[in-house]
Write a structure and sequence with these properties.
Blueprint lengths: L6 H15 L3 H28 L1 H8 L9 H16 L4 H28 L6 H4 L6 H19 L4 H33 L13 H19 L4 H5 L1 H32 L11 H21 L6 H37 L1
Helix pairs in contact: 1-2, 1-4, 1-12, 1-13, 2-3, 2-4, 4-5, 4-7, 5-7, 7-8, 7-9, 8-9, 9-11, 9-12, 11-12, 12-13
Length: 340
Amino acid sequence: MSPAYFGLVMATGIVSLAGFMLGYTSLAFALFYLNIGQYSVLMVLYGVRAVRHPRRFFGDMIEHLIGPGYFTVVAATGILASQFLLLGGDTSISLALWGLEILLWLGLTYTIFTAFTIKQDKPSLDRGINGGWLLAVVATQALSVTSALLAARLGQPYRLELNLLALSTWLWGGMLYIWMMSLIFYRYVFFRFSPGDLAPPYWINMGAMAISTLAGARLILNAPDAPFLTSLLPFLKGFTVFYWATGTWWIPMLLLLGVWRHLYKRFPLEYDPLYWGMVFPLGMYAAATFQMDEAMAFGFLAWLPRGFFFIAAAAWVITYFGMLRRLLRGLLPARDVKHG
């Protein structure tokens, strides 16, 4: 079982939230209820895997290429908390998930990166890093978004503290992106690149910037209730646009690399759990652009989030169908043996 399978919850959740923002409430609520079930099932499966295969479960955490996939559980928890808050209107469940999100973020951040630092046998840069590392940024910014949303709904004395936490994690996520993206871009242009190296998590290059944009927009909207945010408004607005512009730049680049991978190099296109790492950025870009357009009062970007929402929804349907097909295909041999 892939450590990054909570990308399913991330993708479903952000398509639901984007749909809710854009007025597609029936679809948003349907995906919300589906996401509750998916999150619950995956939590049980991960728990069973940890108990039955502890060496493999915890060993995956310290593997350079797959360990950062565990950060999907942090981001998924934060996105589900946001769904409960915005769609369900349930502050108590959102607070409980937010508390779990913090514990998971602390545990995974310091476990994974401490292990990467002190382990004796380490891969070379071209064999040890990919876009999946940026899931650590996504997890950090998901915590910022959840904290900012809760701050907007809770009264004092917690509002200021939550906004400070949201601001701090937003800034740390941005710094972490700069560190990691420098290494990933260096790997891009100075090492041999094969189609197999271009795994779907490279779309997190854009997704990490999109969720950073969303978190920044939430901080701008929260500024009237937090004086220290008001004093930082020019900085918040400047960096929010900076994140959005960076994420936007990645979209044509990733499309060109996808064409090179699948059309020119004829790399087979088949379902992989990692493809949820491509659906999520598309939905997040729609939600982030909508929120930034509202926070900055632009008014002329309204068409962009709606277009990306439809693209994200189509990608979600295709990937979900591929997942169901893979699951059914896995069950058929067992049935054949049973009736043979």
